[in-house]
C-alpha cells in the first residue's frame, strides 16, 4: 500500500512557483479518487487511463468499474448508429425520464459522439445493449463478428473463436462475477459455445436439450438473456432464457395470444407487447410475473387521440423504456430534423424529442438506427 501511495503522490505532484523553496505532494486516497471518477463522463475514462500507471490501475479495478456500472444503470441512454461512406458512427444522449412533466410537449437533446471504428464494421444487426457492449456483424451465417465497447473504443474480433455453424451471437454481462460473455448460438440451438472475457479468456461448450430455430428479438435483464424461438417438434413458440452466470438454458411458455410479440425490459421484469389491430391504436402488454410457473399478467393500452394527432401510421415503435414510455420513430427518417416521440401509457401524454449534434453530416443522406436503454460500461474487455 505504501508503494501505491508513493506512486500516486508522484502522479499528482503539486509544485509551487520556482521562487518557492518547498515543493510538496498531497496524495488523494484511492477510494476518494474512485468516487470522483465514477461521476465523470464515460468517454473520458479511456483518456484518464493513459495519464499514469496508477490512474490506469485504479480505473481498471473491479470496485471502480462496478461502481460506474451501478450508477450507469440509473441513467440509461439513447444510442444512435449510422454508416457514412462505409464507416460506422455511434452517438449517444441521455434517455429522458418524465419528459412531459419537466419539459411539456417539446424538448431537445444534443447527442455526443463515441469512439470511431474501422470502415469494415457494420451496423446491420446488433445485440441487446444493456450490458454496454455492441455485437456487430454482417449478413450470412459465416459472417465476421465484433464485440465492441463504443465508450472505450475497445473491440475484439469474434472470428478468432472457432464456433462454426453459428446462427447468432449474443453479448451479455454477468453482474455477479463482473464478466462480459458472448453466447454463440448454433443453427439448431443445441451445441453452443460461450466465451468469457477477462485477463484469461475462457471458452466452454453449452448443450441445450431442446433444439430450437427461428430465434428472434432479445433483451438482457440482470444477467439473463431472453429471446423468442420456435420448436419444430412441438410446433410451439417459447421464450428461451440463458443465464450468463450459470451458463444454463431454461424455457418460458407463452400464453395463447402471445404470438409475434416484441420483448422489452419493463421496470426490471421481462415484458412483451404487440399491436392488436392494423391501425396500431391498441397495444397489448404482458409482464412475466413468475418464470417457473410461466405466469404472465396482461393488459391492453388504447392509445389516445394524441397518437393520431402527433404520431400516426408513418411511425414505428423503437421500443418501450423501463419507465413505461413507448418510443416512436418515423419510417425512413434521415438527418436533419431527427426526432422521436415519447408516449407515456399511464399519463396518456406525448412529447416530441428533437436530437441535435449531427451537424457535420448535414450534407449526407443516411438513415439512423436508434436503440433504447444503453448502459455505459467501462469494464475492460
Report on the structure:
The chain is mostly beta strands and 381 residues long. The chain folds into 2 domains: 61 residues, no CATH class; 300 residues, 6 Propeller (Neuraminidase), CATH 2.120.10. The chain is 14% helix and 42% strand. It contains 7 helices and 26 strands. It is globular and about 60 Å long. The two termini are 27 Å apart. It holds the Pfam family F-box. This is F-box protein At1g53360.
In short:
By secondary structure, the protein is mainly beta. It contains seven helices and 26 strands.
Rg estimate, integer Å: 23 Å
| CATH topology grouping of the largest domain | Neuraminidase
Proportion of residues in extended strands = 35-45%
List how many beta strands DSSP finds.
Answer: 26
Taken from the alpha-carbon principal axes, the silhouette is: globular
Main beta sheet: 5 strands, mixed
Q: Structural class, from secondary structure content?
A: mainly beta
InterPro entries: F-box-assoc_dom_typ3 (IPR013187), F-box-assoc_interact_dom (IPR017451), F-box-like_dom_sf (IPR036047), F-box_dom (IPR001810)
Domain F-box: 28-68
Protein name: F-box protein At1g53360
Amino acid at each position: 500500500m505504501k508503494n501505491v501511495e508513493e506512486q500516486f503522490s508522484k502522479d499528482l505532484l503539486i509544485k509551487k512557483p520556482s521562487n518557492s523553496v518547498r515543493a510538496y505532494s498531497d496524495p488523494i486516497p484511492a477510494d476518494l479518487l474512485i468516487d470522483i471518477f465514477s461521476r465523470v463522463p464515460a468517454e473520458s475514462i479511456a483518456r484518464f487511463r493513459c495519464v499514469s500507471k496508477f490512474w490506469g490501475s485504479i480505473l481498471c479495478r473491479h470496485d471502480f468499474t462496478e461502481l460506474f456500472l451501478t450508477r450507469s444503470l440509473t441513467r440509461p441512454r439513447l444510442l444512435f448508429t449510422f454508416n457514412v461512406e462505409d464507416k460506422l458512427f455511434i452517438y449517444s444522449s441521455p434517455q429522458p425520464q418524465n419528459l412531459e412533466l419537466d419539459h411539456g410537449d417539446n424538448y431537445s437533446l444534443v447527442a455526443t459522439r463515441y469512439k470511431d471504428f474501422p470502415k469494415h464494421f457494420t451496423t446491420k444487426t446488433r445485440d441487446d445493449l444493456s450490458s454496454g457492449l455492441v455485437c456487430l456483424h454482417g449478413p450470412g451465417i459465416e459472417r465476421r463478428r465484433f464485440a465492441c465497447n463504443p465508450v472505450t473504443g475497445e473491440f475484439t474480433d469474434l472470428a478468432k473463436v472457432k464456433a462454426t455453424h453459428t446462427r447468432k451471437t449474443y453479448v451479455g454481462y454477468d453482474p455477479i462475477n463482473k464478466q462480459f460473455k458472448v453466447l454463440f448460438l448454433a443453427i439448431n440451438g443445441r451445441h453452443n459455445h460461450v466465451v468469457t472475457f477477462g485477463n484469461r479468456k475462457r471458452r466452454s461448450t453449452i448443450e441445450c436439450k431442446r433444439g430450437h430455430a427461428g430465434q428472434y428479438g432479445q433483451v438482457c435483464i440482470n444477467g439473463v438473456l431472453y429471446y423468442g424461438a420456435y420448436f419444430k417438434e412441438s410446433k410451439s413458440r417459447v421464450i428461451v432464457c440463458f443465464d450468463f452466470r450459470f451458463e444454463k438454458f431454461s424455457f418460458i411458455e407463452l400464453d395463447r395470444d402471445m404470438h409475434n410479440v416484441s420483448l422489452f425490459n419493463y421496470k426490471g421484469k421481462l415484458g412483451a407487447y404487440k399491436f392488436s389491430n392494423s391501425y396500431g391504436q391498441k397495444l397489448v402488454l404482458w409482464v412475466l410475473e413468475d418464470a417457473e410457473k410461466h405466469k404472465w399478467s396482461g393488459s391492453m393500452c388504447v392509445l389516445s387521440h394524441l397518437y393520431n394527432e402527433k404520431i400516426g401510421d408513418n411511425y414505428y415503435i423503437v421500443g418501450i423504456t423501463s419507465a413505461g414510455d413507448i418510443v416512436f420513430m418515423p419510417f425512413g427518417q434521415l438527418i436533419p430534423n431527427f426526432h422521436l416521440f415519447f408516449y407515456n401509457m399511464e399519463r396518456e401524454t406525448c412529447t416530441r424529442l428533437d436530437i441535435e449534434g449531427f451537424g457535420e453530416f448535414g450534407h449526407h443522406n443516411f438513415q439512423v438506427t436508434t436503440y433504447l436503454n444503453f448502459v455505459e460500461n467501462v469494464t475492460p474487455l
